[in-house]
Structures are given as structure tokens and as C-alpha cells.
Amino acid sequence: MQAATKAENIRLRLEVTYMLKQIEIKNFRSFSDVTIGPLKKINLITGLNNSGKTGLLEAIFLVLTREDDQRRAVRKNRATDLPNLFRVFSPEADANENFWLWLFRDKDPEKLIEISASTDTGLTQSVWLTAKHPNQFVQVGSGAWRHTGSLGSVFILRPNTSNQLPRPAVFGSHPSDPVQDAIDFNRVVLKRGKKKLEKLLQQIDPRVTAIEALQTGQRPLIYADIGLPEMIPISHLGEGFCRLLDIYSELLAGEAKVLLIDEIENGLHHTVLRVVWKGLIAAAKELNVQIFATTHSAETIFAADQAASKNGESELNLVRLDRVNGEIKPTVIEQKDLATAKEFNWELR
Amino acid sequence: MKLLLCEGNDDKAVVEGLCRHGEISDLVIEPYCGRGNLERVVKALPIRPEFTRKEVTSFAILIDAEEDGEASFQKLRNAIQQGLDIVIEQPGVFVGTAPRVAGFIISEADGKKGMLEDLCLESVSDRADYKCMQEYFDCLSKKTATKNYHPKAKFKAWMASQTEYDFRVGLAAGKGYLPWESKAFGPILEFLKSV
Question: Which terminus of chain A, N or C, has less C-beta within 10 A?
Fold first, then answer.
């Protein structure tokens, strides 16, 4: 009985720490000094082009990613991967000059970047990025900060007492690596999630009766059975289908507790958005995963809201980023206001 | 952006007619679909990108006086205060900057009571069809126990005398039945020009 209670307490403690409630960003890209919250299980991020949506995903990624974590990467989850996670960055280009230094607001390395994420239980994880070479330990107030890694000529510092918050998984807007997708799919098979994954994907394309990772050449690829004489490589089923398989695989078998998805509606027809969200939200709730997804689509916003709402309560917030007088201003829109906006046909993006 | 909220689609049609007449082309007119929605709609306005991006330069709300113009103004004032944290002191007078904000009470000439239909009826009160309608209600009042008929009922009776068989104020506005140059529309037209 006591053991059961202890196990339950541990489970509860783990669950509550997985919910980010607030993000604070200073001097990162176009963010001068911004606090975003309260956050919910599902957080849709919208705004005009270049309003900071992808930058917000990058900030969350940086604060949650632990460069000193020696565990084998489940997905690309190292801070040094950032240039190609959400954006397309040429490996030939000078990353320091053309990427890392641009993380500083106005590309001014004198401005210290600070990003903090806090949970609903009050735990906080922070990261500083600085272009000035730090001593191994930096004393700030009563806290000590430690140099934990470098991004080009940019140094990463974290507080010694930093809490281990959930690790993120990233889904950029560009196509994913099909070999990595096959590896991720095999983890789903290993964890007996294959049937569930196939059922979720059947909602997008009812022809799909089975998904398999097969190795017919040097590397494995994912194939789908859609009733043809041969199984078809899933890349032929479209970008939206492949992305969803990727996302569902992470949900069902990954270790990440925060999914960062850029332009989630890419490649998806508006008629499937509701079932997509229904599947995502059900899995996110069951597996205690928090989702941050950018979107330009009103249909996505309302489909997600519909799927996330039950008995007047909602698991979803819409975060809109606006650029006002050169500063990014966040507006967090809750379910009741989303309902009003929908009723009166207001534009919210 | 100049944003004007009005009670319903009929009000919107009348305001659009007045704007055409007054050569006002830069107003965005939206209905809040009944005075019962006023507080909820105004409270949610700050989530709109036009407000957060500070694109709204002028913002105004129309509301019928109904039986009590003062009570309607208080309702409007409270809604604006709760939603936008701006206090308007008197009807038709703008306060603040970026956005300037005002409320306007649609009423009879005395400003104490009335509604959109009263304005519309007043605008045609010198016409034969109006006099016929008025005689009809006078007759009803004499021969029944009912002494006061609702302005909406009177307007519908007047509309029944028009070529197009429809009772809506919006249709009257759209079809050009209402004389926009009437002095009955003077105060609201002046207000619309000031938005």
C-alpha cells in the first residue's frame, strides 16, 4: 500500500513538472523582454510573417535542451542542431556569422540573452547565451551559473541549480529525414504502438491498412499498404501524411514531453484538421505531452479549439505575436474569447 | 482603422446608407448582434489584432436608448470601461487617443428614449404613407385597450405600405426608402463624421 502511494506520488510529481506555464525571453532574436503565459497543454502560435513564431519555438527548444546531457539523442535535440531544425541553413555558410550571432537582438552580442521556462509547480529552467567568454562559474546574485557549452562563438550558461524540465522534440516545416522516420517508426513497433499509429493515420487516408519499415536497399524506409499490388513508400502519400506519421511516432514512442511543431497545417487538407487535432490532443493528454505549434491557418485554430474543448473547458490557448513599434508583443487568447471570435467572424491571425 | 460597432444588421444597413449619403468611406461597421452581447464583445476586443497592433485609431459604439437613454449610456460606459479600460463621460464625445473612443445613443429628439426605428419613422413623418400608418395606430388605440404600440410594430406597418414587401429596417435602408437628408438623421450623421 505504502509502495503504491510512493509510486503514485512519483508519477504525479513527474506529471506536474511536465507542464510549462510560462516562458520569459530577453534579447533573443526580435524579443526584447517578453513574458508569455499562461500556457496550456496545447499552445497554438500565430501572427504575421516575421512576428517571431519560429523564434519562440527556438527559444523553448534552447531552454529545454540540455547540451550536457550525455544520453543518446532520441531525435535531433542538441542545441548545435538549431540552424537546421526550423530553418534551412547551408552547411557551407559561416554559421557563427550567419546564424548564431543573429540570435542576439539586433545582432548585438553585448545584449545578454536570457530564456526561462517555468512549470505550474514553480520549477524553473533558464539559459543564458553570451558572446563574452565566461569563467567556468559565474556568480549572479545568490545563484551560480555554469558554462555548459558553446554555439559557434556564443557561450551557453545555465544555473547550477537548474531543474531538469521535459525534453523537446522538433518538427520543422521542411520534410524530415526518411531514414530517421523509419528508426522512429521502429521504436513505435517496439513499444507495441503500431496498431494505434495505423488507426490514427487511417483517419487521414482511409486506404491505409498497414505501415511497415522495410529495408530493400542500404537503409530502411517506411512503406504503406493502401491496397495496391505493392506497398508504397510513404513519401508518395504526401508531405502532410509523412509529417503526421513523424509526429504521431514521437507521441507514441518518444521520450519528448514537449513537441515543437512549425506550421502544423502544411500539407494537410482542411477537412482532416479536426481528426488530426482530435488524435493529437487525445495522445497528448494520455501521454502527458505538451504541444507548441505555429500556424497561419484559421481553420487549424478553430479545428484545434473544437477538438480541445469539452464542457466549456479547453486544453488550448492561442498565442498571437504582434510586432508593435519594433517590439514583439504576445497576446494569449483563451477558449471563451476564441468562441466569441468565431461567433463574430473576427480575424485572429 | 476606424471601427464602429452597432447593435444589429439593420443598424449596420442604416449606418451604411448614412455613410454613403455623408460620403464617409473609411468606417468599418460591425454588428454585435443585440445589446445582450455588448459586454462580452467589448471585453473580447483587446484580443483582436487590430487592437493589439494599434491599428484602430477611432472606435465607437451605437446603442438604442430604448426606454431609458441614461441607463443605456451607463451600460455602454461600463462595457467600454471593462473591455478597454477607458471611461467615456458623455454620449457622442470622444475620449483618449489611439484609439479615440466614444458611444452614441440612438434616441428620439429628446435623447431620453427611442431606438433606430423611431429615427427612421421620424425621417418619413412628413409623408402621406406615414400619416396613414399613424391614423391606423390612432384608430387601433381608440378601439382597443392598447394605447402604446412599439416603434418596431409601427415601422413594420409603415414598411408594409412600401413597394417591396418586407418589414426589415435594413431593407428600407438598402432600397433607398429612407430620406438620409432628413434632419432626424442629423445627430447620428454628425457623429459618424466625427468617428
Answer: N
Closest CA to A83 of A148, A174, A155, A159: A174
Does B48 contact A at CB distance below 8 Å?
A: yes
B38, B52, B55, B61, best to mutate vs chain A, most A CBs in 10 Å: B52
Residue A159 backbone phi and psi in degrees, to 5 = -65, 145
Range of the domain at B88: 2-114+182-194
- Say what the pLDDT of residue A139 is: 66
Indicate whether B68 and B124 sit together in one domain.
no
Indicate if B102 and B132 belong to the same structural domain: no
CB–CB contact B52 A320 (8 Å): yes
Alpha-carbon span B102 to B91, nearest angstrom? 7
Specify whether B101 is located in the same domain as B29: yes
pTM of the model: 0.88
Q: What is the pLDDT of residues A77-121, one digit of tens each?
A: 688 889 988 988 888 889 999 999 999 999 999 899 999 999 988
Angle made by CA atoms B157, B161, B163, in degrees to the nearest 5:
135
Residue B190 and residue B109 in one domain: yes
Q: Which of A296, A272, A225, A224 lies closest to A44, judged by CA? A: A296
Go through the domains of chain A in sequence order and give each one's CATH number: 2-167+255-343 (3.40.50.300)
B41 touches chain A (CB under 8 A): yes
Give dist(CA A296, CA A123) in Å, integer. Answer: 32
Chain A residues with CB under 8 Å of B54 CB are 324-325
Supply the pLDDT for residue A15: 47
Same structural domain, B25 and B67: yes
Packing angle, helices A298-308 and A273-287, rounded to 10: 50
Which residues of chain A neighbour B33 with C-beta distances below 8 Å?
344
Whether pLDDT at A12 is above 50:
no
Mutate: best of B6, B53, B56, partner A, most A CBs <10 A: B53
Same domain, B143 and B127: yes
Quick one: B79 and B142 in the same domain?
no
A296, A305, A321, A322, best to mutate vs chain B, most B CBs in 10 Å? A322
Asked whether the ipTM of the predicted complex exceeds the cut of 0.90, the reply is no
Beta carbon pairs, A and B, within 8 Å: 35
Q: Is A216 on the interface with B (CB under 8 A)?
A: no
Rg of chain B over all Cα atoms, to the nearest angstrom? 17
For residue A58, give every residue at least 6 positions away whose Cβ sits within 8 Å of its Cβ, in sequence order, or none: A28, A29, A82, A85, A86, A103
Contact B52 A329 (CB under 8 A): yes
- Answer yes or no: do B126 and B157 share one domain: yes
Residue of B nearest to A326 (CA): B53
The nearest CA of chain A is from the CA of B32 a distance in Å of 8
Number of domains chain B is built from = 2
Q: Which letter does DSSP use for residue A102 in this model?
A: G
Radius of gyration of chain A (CA): 21
